Amino acid sequence: MTGVGTTIFAEMSALAVATGSVNLGQGFPDVDGPRAVAQAAADAIMAGHGNQYPPGPGIPELRRAIADHQQRFYGLAFDPAAEVLVTTGATEAVAAALLALVEPGDEVIAFEPYYDSYAACVAMAGGIRVPVTLRPPDFRPDLDALRSAVTTRTRLILLNSPHNPTGSVFTRAELEAIAKLACERDLLVVADEVYEHLVYTGEHLPIGSLPGMTDRTVSISSAGKTFSFTGWKIGWVTASAELVAAVTSVKQFLTYVSGGPFQYAVAEALRMPDAYYAGLSADLRGKRDLLCAGLAEAGFEVYPPAGTYFVTTDIRQLGESDGVRFCRELPHRAGVVAIPSAVFYDDPEAGRTQVRFAFCKRTEVLQEALARITEWAKNS
Ligand SMILES: Cc1ncc(COP(=O)(O)O)c(C=O)c1O
Description:
Blueprint: H1 4-19, E1 22-23, H2 35-46, H3 60-74, E2 84-88, H4 89-101, E3 107-112, H5 117-124, E4 128-133, H6 143-149, E5 154-160, H7 172-184, E6 188-192, E7 217-222, H8 223-227, E8 234-238, H9 241-254, H10 260-269, H11 274-298, E9 301-303, E10 310-314, H12 323-333, E11 336-337, E12 339-340, E13 354-358, H13 363-379
Parallel strand pairs: 1-11, 3-4, 3-5, 5-6, 6-7
Antiparallel strand pairs: 2-8, 7-8, 9-10, 10-13, 12-13
The structure holds pyridoxal-5'-phosphate (PLP).
């Protein structure tokens, strides 16, 4: 499926423009993050902070703020000088981690459906991806299937919780089982935690905080989702000094450094009070509930997500059997764009009737999308 997700996003965005559709396809907010944070970036540019190549691992202020964030929210201690790396979004962090840690022929286990860069990055590293499927209605990890997927060639588990596109948030018991397996079979875990603050049911637990995991986990996050500045592409890695050194050695030849002035702004953003983080998830929780209720009323089978920007639905109740076709037609039929989840699976049959909608949009935009979908569903 390498690249298919990316292609479908471009196709659907173009279709949204051509048909004047409400675009609930790609996951980015339609309102920027806090003004004070944007001002901090503007101030940094005008003050000449970070306009020339900043330090490769990231500016010290940001590395310190990332370490403090890990301590504040999870009680994890990282040395900002050796155990934190700033990257160009989580996307670069995932790519650099896989290129650094996977040798040709190594197997990488990931829970499908998965974020579309994973397959491409495993392939670029010469690795072999081994999917373990999350299935509706709960999209819980099948731990027996995971255990059976591990072979002598398995190098690492690429974990994403809260999970895009299903919105599943792995429980403590599930993460403990995965951690135990990683320790028993001497595996690394690359944990993509970009939605760590977008949790509405349950709570996010970093797998790196579990016993035995400190030296075998590369944790990845990003300012894009947490502060609603997805265009800034400031991400980070926290891990042992040895793992950070390995990832840094690849980052050096991917981008060398990451956007300087934005780093100053993100350093400030990470220090915002708890009320900011609570407000962000409360706002998105309300939007999740609005979209889930409206889609269910229109006749979709809805799998309410515990976290992220996305809700997965099934279209069989609407008399539909092919999500790709459905998503190509929906803009013309209803004036709404969504993404067929099949593009996130190795096995397209597994997600054939699933369709993903993003709810990180203004309430009036979601209401307009729902009004259009309801009207279409009534008349079809
Ligand atoms: C699971 C997951 N990982 C990584 C990213 C990319 O993050 P960034 O924009 O920081 O590169 C996304 C963005 O949609 C995502 O959903």
